Amino acid sequence: MAPAPATCGERFLDGVRELTRRGGARDAAIDVRAVPLGPAPRPVGRTDGSWVSRHVVGPEDALAAVREHLARSLRCRSTRRTAVVAEEFIAADASAQVLSRARGRFEEAVALVRAAHGVAVGGADPAGAADTYLVRRTDLNILVEWFTDKYRQMVPTPTGLVERPLPDVLRDRPCLPEQRIRDMVRIGLVAEAVMGRPVRMELAWKNGMVYVLWCEAAE
């Protein structure tokens, strides 16, 4: 499902309606993501990136989110086309963002992982704090880890995402065990090999299973 802004047809919108009807997708909710297509121009001031609306419940709100993302891409006046993707929502126990090759002056090539309880993480995480790891790419050894006190998490409700306090027992504990951090970097390196360049991706853990939510070439 990836129409251009000017040609977003009823077939795509019908698919969004079907995906978000009660009894359709799990929890009848989706994530709506808009991603610019093609290589980014050299920045001259502001650059455009991807946008996401999480846990959109019901067909009317889903269609409104699709139209808003399309309208936003037109307002940005970018020369790049925009793909809008409707994804099944995963009510994650923990979420993580992975950058398969971290930028910076590191002595060794490392991947960067940020992990948080609940739904979403990193720049798209309204609940804020996340644990951060630097993982050596050659052998998946965790070189550096920063644990932060976490007080909030985003959880799904029948009407959307809600910020709630994190239980005291989880506040100063890692969001994920070290083996899962290594597993996520391994997935990122496989994606990098397929795409031929470093990648940025988001993953979710639910009932012990990992889900790759999205993956794109790192700018």
Report on this model:
The chain is α+β, with helices and mostly antiparallel strands. The protein has 3 helices and 11 strands; from the N terminus they run αββαβββββββαββ. The protein has helices spanning 10-19, 59-75, 178-195; strands at 29-36, 51-57, 82-88, 94-99, 110-117, 131-136, 142-146, 152-157, 160-165, 199-206, 209-217. Strands 7-6-5-4-10-11 form a 6-stranded antiparallel beta sheet, covered by helices on one side. A 3-stranded antiparallel beta sheet has the order 2-1-3, with helices on one face. The protein has a two-stranded antiparallel sheet with strand order 8-9. A hairpin with a 5-residue loop joins β6 and β7. α1 crosses α2. The longest helix is centred in the last third of the chain and has 18 residues, at 178-195. The radius of gyration is 18 Å and the shape is globular. The chain starts with 9 loop residues before the first helix and ends with a strand.
Give a quick summary of the entry.
With 219 residues, this protein is of the alpha+beta class. It has helices at residues 10-19, 59-75, 178-195; strands at residues 29-36, 51-57, 82-88, 94-99, 110-117, 131-136, 142-146, 152-157, 160-165, 199-206, 209-217.
- Overall radius of gyration: 18 Å
Strand order of the largest sheet: 7-6-5-4-10-11
Overall, the morphology is globular
Please give the share of residues in helix. Answer: 10-25%
Structural class: alpha+beta
Number of DSSP strand runs = 11
The main pleated sheet reads as: 6 strands, antiparallel
**Element-by-element helix/strand order:** HEEHEEEEEEEHEE
Query: What is the residue-mean pLDDT, rounded to a whole number?
Result: 80
Measured between the Cα atoms of the first and last residue, the distance is 23 Å
pLDDT < 50 stretches: 1-8, 42-48, 122-127
How many helical elements? 3
Quote the beta fraction.
25-35%
